[in-house]
Amino acid sequence: MRADMRTQVGIVGAGPAGLLLSHLLAQRGIDSVLVESRSREYCEARQRAGVLEAGSVALLREAGLGARLDREGIEHGGIYLQFDGQRRHLDFRDLTGRTVTVYAQTEVVKDLIARRLADGGVIEFGVTAPEIADLDSHRPVLSYTDARGSRQELTCEVIVGCDGFHGMSRAAIPASALTIRERGYPYSWLGILAAVPPSTDELIYAYHERGFALHSLRSPLTSRLYLQVGRDEKIEEWPDERIWDELDRRFQLPGWTLHRGPVLDKGITPMRSFVAAPMRHGRLFLAGDAAHIVPPTGAKGLNLALADVAVLAPALDQLLHGDSSLAGAYSDTCLRRIWRSTHFSWWMTTMLHRKPGADDMETELQLAQLRYVTASRAAATSLAENYTGYPT
Length: 392
Ligand code: FAD
Ligand code: DHB
Known about the structure:
21 strands; about 30% strand
């Protein structure tokens, strides 16, 4: 046991939230140690989100992390909504003056890890059995077994749980101190990454009687596609041919072809809306998926995680200098954006997915909504404003 390790901020989880927080703190001269249960290779390869709001791009640029993002990120000025056998374009530039950028979460994570390590930051990959103790004191303790098998004890001034929905940090807060709001959805997303140039210039969100489908992309040579599948389906039931056939049916449009290619990665993700509040208990703060998750249809999860830590870094800076006002407001400040995104993600999800057993009434209501958001400039502007994001 090494009982003498100290840091100002102990961070659990090297996803986008934990990594960006340690970088923003370092820029303010604040020392942190990041502990992560997976290997660096695993964190860098985990396929997840792909769309950055304008505010997230600005945040990464301001933090000095924009070089590769500016070179390789693909700016998109809108999306397509497909329904009723037609594909309608929503022009975000025209509606809001704003755009989004396609730049995969894997790339954001690679950039952040490389930068932290180049700056001398400490990231302990491959830790096991992390535990948080003495939460109500001024010196909470983060203990863990490092990758070499030695138990470590890290005395901190603050601990931040950035360890995702299934992490241990939220569970360290007494259940009676948290209010949980939660909703499940009766379907999942099957996602593939394919080595084939995208068949579209901008993302296609398709409503279809067989279920929702999304055509996204990662680069001029790589496509990312999603299918609504049953809640309990297994990836083994979906050989590549079956996935492409189903994507073909849902995106079908006269004169348009979906190009097929080798599938590089595939997986199924359940959908949930979840908000735990407050996002602070004593000297433990929660950020990103550790505190809240949204169904992916609105492309908000990654953006919310980045926005949380942009609020948290200056709040912790103040707190460590004896002023607790921003830290006291942290949870409420973040929750306003989180609830807006939670509503938008729920709205996009329920508008675009087929509920198992849905009747004709439900279908007509969804189609009426889709026709409205593509025909009314006011309704289209509302979608565009939410999709491109809120000011940071
Ligand atoms: P995470 O990225 O989850 O990072 C948490 C980190 O903590 C991980 O590295 C994890 O290994 C680590 N960790 C967990 N437990 C422990 C522990 N006990 N000790 C130490 N470390 C721990 N959003 C979109 O917008 N679009 C999408 O298509 C999309 N797809 C998704 C697919 C999946 C399978 C998942 C799970 C999420 C998806 N999301 C998507 C959501 C988006 O990726 C997340 O909102 C984003 O990753 C949140 O970042 P985070 O840093 O808060 O958490
Ligand atoms: C992607 C994921 C989303 O959830 C979304 O709404 C748009 C794009 C993606 O992975 O590219």
